[in-house]
Design a protein that fits this description.
18 helices; 7-stranded parallel β-sheet; single chain; Rossmann fold; Sacchrp_dh_NADP-bd; NAD(P)-bd_dom_sf; 43% helix; Saccharopine_DH-like_oxidrdct; 7-stranded mixed β-sheet
Length: 453
């Protein structure tokens, strides 16, 4: 593209994939939409198969005729094609997973081109490797790279921040446990890419630990009032929210820790490339009100039988995911090894429409910071908040990704010039939460109570 030619606002890479087609469908709602307070002026879609992309555009546009969007050829195994994409746009929305296999070349092309990048990855090893490999270069080139801009890990990040902001001085939060509950009027069928990422996550667990050990310096840890939480029961019955729960080894906890670590280094948050004085004041006020906390995530079910089913799936993935033969079995027969929770062709439209999620945040702390410093101090205060929304993989994730893109394009001067960051530290002080609430994802205070020791 010639230097004087106007660039596309964004290019959706992998638009014909399982999740990519829903991202395109959501993005089209905001294409030249005069009814929205921010919209896209131009969108292009990219991938390996132009015929499939054209068919996807027709599907995503229904019941309206498809708009005339440019269809661009690109392949993650062809770096020149990726550099060509980046030269034609301000922002890449990457929907091509698994990201540990296909994401690195896309990030590299964006960073080298000075193009911004967001994705829907839920893979901690990929996200942290991108930070190690490309952060300094991204700062230099003015490329803002933000992974985890879908259900992984925006509800967890914003949900924790929302709970934290309810703790008004002199009260302080000590720990927040998130409980994810997937619900449906029909049967719950998960995103196969999520299942595949979990399987590959087990295979690459040692690489993640090796990556963390190889960093020249350890991440700073926030100062959190009160004692560190003890390890609880393997299967917990959280009566206050009506769920049985077990630990969920997702990206959310590690992404939140990275956000809190960055905040420890930069207590006023990340300055924008050309912030207005009003935004500087808003950003600093926001982060001064956020209180760090120990954070964990659990998957919940209303029945003990449901949580035993989830536990069994975890055992299958844990045992078989560490060998190549076992991974082949898991990925070739997902419906069998996930006890029907995942299948290769994903959920039907009816199953997507009937599904929803609730993510509860149970925060415990002290009604006075002085109590937290006492020996054998136990939390005496509890605040429960909740994030709710539609189906996680094909509805909530596209909503979140598209709203992040709209903010990035319309408020670019208020965001960091460049670097590889988590969504919380970048979008926390923006109006992302308000935008999500306007698009079907709610944030609510459930209760504030004193708890007895």
């Amino acid at each position: 593209m010639e230097p004087n030619v106007t660039k596309f606002d964004l290019i959706i890479l992998g638009a014909s994939g399982f999740t990519g087609k829903y991202v395109l469908k959501e993005a089209l709602k905001f294409l030249n939409n005069n009814q929205s307070f921010s919209s896209f002026n131009s969108i292009a879609i990219a991938g390996r198969n132009p015929t499939k992309l054209a068919q996807t555009l027709i599907w995503a546009s229904k019941p309206n005729p498809p708009p005339s969007l440019p269809i661009l050829l690109a392949d993650t195994t062809n770096p020149p094609s990726l550099r060509s994409l980046c030269s034609q746009t301000n922002l890449i929305l990457n929907c091509v997973g698994p990201f540990r296999h296909h994401g690195d070349p896309v990030v590299a092309a964006c960073v080298d081109s000075g193009c911004d990048y967001i994705d829907i990855s839920g893979e901690p090893e990929f996200m942290e490797r991108m930070e190690v490999s490309y952060h300094d270069r991204a700062v230099e080139r003015g490329s803002l790279v933000v992974s985890g801009c879908g259900f992984d890990s925006v509800p967890a990040e914003l949900g924790l921040l929302y709970n934290s902001l309810q703790w008004v001085g002199p009260s302080v939060v000590n720990r927040v446990e998130a409980y994810v509950s997937l619900e449906s009027e029909k049967r719950i069928v998960g995103n196969f890419a999520t299942y595949e990422s979990a399987v590959l996550g087990v295979a690459n667990a040692s690489k993640l630990q090796q990556l963390r050990r190889s960093r020249p310096k350890r991440r700073p840890r926030p100062m959190i009032p009160g004692p560190s939480p003890t390890k609880g029961e393997t299967i917990e019955h959280q009566k206050k929210i009506g769920l049985w729960a077990v630990m969920l080894p997702s990206a959310d906890a590690s992404v939140v820790r990275r956000t809190l670590s960055t905040l420890t280094e930069k207590p006023k948050g990340l300055p924008g490339s050309n912030e207005s004085p009003e935004m500087v004041e808003k950003r600093e006020a926001f982060w001064s009100s956020v209180k760090p906390a120990h954070f964990g995530v659990k998957i919940g079910s209303k029945s003990l039988l449901g949580i035993l089913r989830i536990t069994m799936i975890g055992i299958f993935i844990g045992l078989l995911g560490s060998t190549s033969f076992g991974r082949r079995l898991l990925l070739n027969f997902p419906s069998f090894f996930s006890l029907g929770l995942f299948r290769k062709n994903g959920p039907s439209n009816e199953e997507v429409e009937s599904a929803s999620f609730k993510m509860w945040f149970v925060g415990q702390g002290f009604n006075n910071e002085n109590l937290a410093s006492q020996v054998n101090a136990k939390p005496d205060m509890e605040i429960i908040t909740r994030v709710t929304g539609p189906e996680v993989g094909y509805v909530s994730t596209p909503i979140i990704l598209v709203q992040c893109a709209l903010i990035l394009l319309s408020q670019r001067n208020n965001l960091p010039k460049g670097g590889v960051y988590t969504p919380g530290i970048v979008f926390g002080p923006t109006d992302l939460q308000q935008r999500l609430q306007q698009n079907g994802i709610s944030f609510d205070i459930i209760s504030k109570n004193t708890i007895s020791s």
